[in-house]
Amino acid sequence: MDELDEARAELARLEGAERMVCKQLVEIRAAITKQKCRIEEFIKKRPPVIDCLPVELLSCIFRSLLVYNDSFTLTELLGLADRRRGLSMVSRLWRNVILDTPEVWSDIVLTDEQPPNIAFLEIQLRRSHKVPLNVTIAGRSEVGRGNSIRPWINVLTSSADRWQRLHVFKVRGNILHDILDALKSVEFPSLKEIHMDMHGELTNCLDLLPFHAPALRKLKLLDFVLPPTFSTAATLTTLELTLGRRLSRMPAPQIEFPAHFPTQSLTVLSLTSYTSGWLYEPDSIHLPLLEVFTLAANDPGRVMKAIVAPNLAHFGFSTPPRDRHVSFGTGSKFNHVQTFNCIDPNTHQRIDGRTLCQEFRGVRHIGIYPNSINVLFSPGIRTSGSESAPADHCTSLEHITIFGLDFYSERFVPLVRWLTKRRELGLPRISVRLSSLPSGPADGTTLLEYYDKLQTHSTLKVDYVETCPMVDGSTLEGVFQLDLLGVESAISDCTFLETFNGNVQRAGCLPGYFRFYTNRY
What we know:
It contains 14 helices and 21 strands. The termini are far apart. By secondary structure, it is α/β, with parallel strands linked by helices. β14 and β15 form a beta hairpin. The longest helix is centred in the first third of the chain and has 43 residues, at 3-45.
């Protein structure tokens, strides 16, 4: 075979290979098309991505979102029905899970704007099966535009054995009268909490409240006048009373222990009354189990002198809105209290820091606002040749919490000087926590200036600080713990994060924790 024949043979072989490859390509393309169709069919048969979560996990999530808890605001509580309706419209599975989760239907909300249809109310009670019920009634006008609330209450009382909480907000006196009148002859064996808030509309219809609730643990009454016949269950452990938030036309507070409230079981007590006329005798109210007491009153001394609480550990105080000096005058009666919180930013205007610290000399934790720093930590009287500050009387002090950060003032100077003096004397370091949202953003220089000064002489933690985007994170010593709130562009700026962490490490600090929040405003 000459060279021409060999070339022709090679060409024939290549052409045959080409035809084979083309045939294989057609077959592969056909197979690809077929496989794509199969995949599309499988995708269509699979449930939607939104339904991929297991039913048990979905039910748990819905219980956390749609069942009342103590962190709910009034707005969130009143919006439970809308939230439940919105989630049930996401998919058929979600709807079925919501329908089949009894706890999701345990919150009964009656409002004057959208009172539920009585038939739907009955359906909701059936869907809730046997789980405990939380009943909320809110609104200032007549339910159903002039109709009585009784039909709704009558339906609810058919399940009175399951009532766990009763919340009544912003209702008019006549509506409250109808509610209490409908409940007065009903027994609630499982009712543990009652919260009634008249929002400034003082009422005196509580003579109808003592319906049967033998398991009652928590009672919260705001803007009520207590009638002589009023009484509660002996099982009560938490009591919060606000006897009118208006200062004019208010009767003198008439609270009798134990005639109105039990004294042997209370562990948490909160009293607010900005009127005068407390009639208690010294050491006349014995509260052997009381652990937490919050007081806001024009005449706190008379109340404090009357109370005997050997187990009191936490005391919170708010001064009245009137400009008057406040004095407890209890001597060493409350030396055993562990925590003292001034829950009013303006407390500094009406208290004597030295007297206060002498009366609560055993406290381990003090919570104050920046305005009160000067009152407690500025030196005044000379003792043993040196000036002492009121806080020096608190020899067991371990923790200081400062609410409402304010980085643009010199209010921290007395605290820094007091901490410096303690360190020079070789006393134990105090833990200082700067808490709550600041009144305005803090630039990095100011933030670190205060941080360095405070952390040098104390164990410092800063949380929820609103800062400018570029903050120098260097410190002098210790562990840097900082929450950054309000960081906008920096949250996605890798250079910023590297610089921030690098500054902390170069300063010799152990890495703390950093949490970044987008600006919500």
